[in-house]
């Protein structure tokens, strides 16, 4: 019987739910429920799509079969169940990489959490953090110099993006998880975490100082370097009430000095343009009100430079956008590297 059919059986009656639940806890049940790659398929995309579907169906099955339990008990059951799927995790990492394995687990989690209220989701977030030691790793990264623990930084980025943020196309939902991730920390650490999750990255490490010494050569590079950062800032500004307008502007300020050297003015201008008119006008207004006219003048000049680059590069950009989306030059080693979103 398919997992989809077992899932439907769990909501037909309490007796049937209990029967399916007993089956789920047996070794045979675990073997049957464990996601596996489709046989005789070598195409990586088809394998990935199959795994994503299996984890979504499995999440729906677990959601339905535990619907009569309390939130605390459900979270314990999910944690124990995922531990029993360790063989699937190992196989996923082997076939598709650690990032995709985390994305599949995130798909399972987002499926079981669908429809839960914010308080229940907050408890789930705390439970996941406690069981995965993310809080300890985050604390270590935030209290160290940028780039001091490149592997831990990259792993933390992958975990937070794949398990939580990248699961949601709805910006309000993403705003909720951004709040859970960022708000426990002071403003300077929120900015560092934001860059860690959405800043430019190459295969080996997060490029903390990239925007301090170089500017995008084209619209394609600007999008790759800064679009995700700008979208996160827009979400914080407009899709959640956890940050005030002044908070968001302060985080933008902290972002530009997250590395040892401040960002180049042209990169700040580019980020603000991606953030949209409202945030840009508010930011420039705060410079003027605080008497920082020299910075404001540099910013206005940088807007002109960025606008000229975008305008003059549009015609050539369409011909090379595909290549620039796929590959870029990693300043750490000077050779072509794939950039991870």
Query: Terminal Cα separation, in Å?
Result: 38 Å
Q: Helix share of residues?
A: over 70%
Overall morphology? elongated
Question: What's the number of helices?
Answer: 18
Describe the protein in words:
Strands 1-2 form a two-stranded antiparallel ribbon. A hairpin with a 6-residue loop joins strand 1 and strand 2. The protein has helices at residues 3-9, 14-24, 27-33, 44-65, 71-83, 86-96, 98-113, 118-132, 134-142, 150-164, 171-182, 187-198, 210-213, 219-238, 245-255, 265-275, 277-289, 293-326; strands at residues 328-329, 336-337. The chain is mainly alpha-helical and 341 residues long.
Can you summarize this structure?
The protein is mainly α.
Please give a handful of descriptors for the protein shown.
341 residues, mainly alpha, two-stranded antiparallel sheet, 2 strands, 1% strand, elongated
How do the helices and strands line up, and which of them pair or pack?
Blueprint: H1 3-9, H2 14-24, H3 27-33, H4 44-65, H5 71-83, H6 86-96, H7 98-113, H8 118-132, H9 134-142, H10 150-164, H11 171-182, H12 187-198, H13 210-213, H14 219-238, H15 245-255, H16 265-275, H17 277-289, H18 293-326, E1 328-329, E2 336-337
Antiparallel strand pairs: 1-2
Helix pairs in contact: 1-4, 4-7, 5-8, 6-7, 7-10, 12-14, 12-15, 14-16, 14-18, 16-18
């Amino acid at each position: 019987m398919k997992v989809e059919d077992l899932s439907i059986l769990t909501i037909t009656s309490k007796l049937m739910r209990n029967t399916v639940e007993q089956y789920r806890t047996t070794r045979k049940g675990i073997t049957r429920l464990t996601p596996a790659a489709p046989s005789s398929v070598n195409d990586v995309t088809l394998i990935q799509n199959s795994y994503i579907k299996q984890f979504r169906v499995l999440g729906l099955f677990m959601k339905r079969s535990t619907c009569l339990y309390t939130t605390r008990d459900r979270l314990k059951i999910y944690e124990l169940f995922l531990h029993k799927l360790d063989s699937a995790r190992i196989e996923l990492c082997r076939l598709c990489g650690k990032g995709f394995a985390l994305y599949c687990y995130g798909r399972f989690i987002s499926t079981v959490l669908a429809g839960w209220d914010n308080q229940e989701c907050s408890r789930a977030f705390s439970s996941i953090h406690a069981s995965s030691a993310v809080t300890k790793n985050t604390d270590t990264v935030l209290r160290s110099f940028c780039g001091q623990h490149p592997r831990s930084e990259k792993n933390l980025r992958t975990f937070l993006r794949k398990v939580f943020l990248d699961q949601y196309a709805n910006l309000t939902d993403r705003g909720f998880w951004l709040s859970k991730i960022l708000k426990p920390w002071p403003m300077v650490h929120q900015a560092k975490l934001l860059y860690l999750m959405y800043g430019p990255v190459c295969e080996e490490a997060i490029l903390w100082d990239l925007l301090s010494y170089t500017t995008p050569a084209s619209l394609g590079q600007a999008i790759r370097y800064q679009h995700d950062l700008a979208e996160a800032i827009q979400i914080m500004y407009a899709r959640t009430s956890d940050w005030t307008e002044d908070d968001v502007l302060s985080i933008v300020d902290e972002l530009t000095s997250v590395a040892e050297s401040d960002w180049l003015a042209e990169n700040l201008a580019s980020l603000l343009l991606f953030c949209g008119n409202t945030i840009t006008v508010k930011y420039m207004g705060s410079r003027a009100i605080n008497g920082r006219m020299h910075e404001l003048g540099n910013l206005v000049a940088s807007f002109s430079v960025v606008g000229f680059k975008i305008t003059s590069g549009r015609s050539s950009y369409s011909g090379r956008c595909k290549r620039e989306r796929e590959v870029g030059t990693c300043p750490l080693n000077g050779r072509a590297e794939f950039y991870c979103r």
